[in-house]
Design a protein that fits this description.
CATH topology: CBS-domain
Strand order of the largest sheet: 1-7-6-5
CATH superfamily: CBS-domain
Structural class: alpha/beta
């Protein structure tokens, strides 16, 4: 059986709304005990990713107010994602190519249906494959 992104992902992934403040996003990250969440628009479509590191580097360190800065302001460029039907190899290649630790999973309607994190890779793959992926995506500073 060939594994797909849907088989590897954590379902029920929560989003930070693009109009939510960074403070609200930080509270959500803390409450869920995670380091990053997708930023979703009012149309429920993926707008970007927000990490705890983004909050520190792009808001706090620059003297911005986390009570008025929105999560959407931190979503830069086109977010990296993978189709729910993507193969295991496509998932791993995307994580390696983009050096990302969290990969949003999108369905046919372009709606977020889950996320694949390093922990999901570790639980799904052999130790040697997991090690190779973690090594490849850990070579650079975290993107998400």
């Amino acid at each position: 059986m060939t594994r797909t992104a849907r088989d590897m992902m954590t379902e029920g992934c929560q989003c930070v709304g693009e109009n939510e403040t960074v403070l609200q996003a930080a509270e959500k990250l803390a409450g869920l005990n995670v380091g990053g969440l997708p930023i979703c628009g009012e149309d429920e479509r993926l707008k970007g990713m927000l990490t705890d590191r983004d909050i520190v580097v792009k808001v706090l360190a620059q003297g911005k107010d986390p009570r008025s800065t929105t999560a959407g302001e931190l979503g830069e460029g086109t977010p990296t994602w993978v189709s729910a039907d993507a193969s295991e190899e496509e998932v791993l290649q995307s994580m390696r190519d983009h050096e990302i630790r969290r990969l949003p999973v999108i369905d046919q309607d372009k709606r977020l249906v889950g996320i694949i994190a390093q922990a999901d890779v570790a639980q799904t793959l052999s130790e040697s494959r997991t090690g190779a992926v973690v090594e490849a995506i850990s070579a650079a500073p975290p993107n998400n």
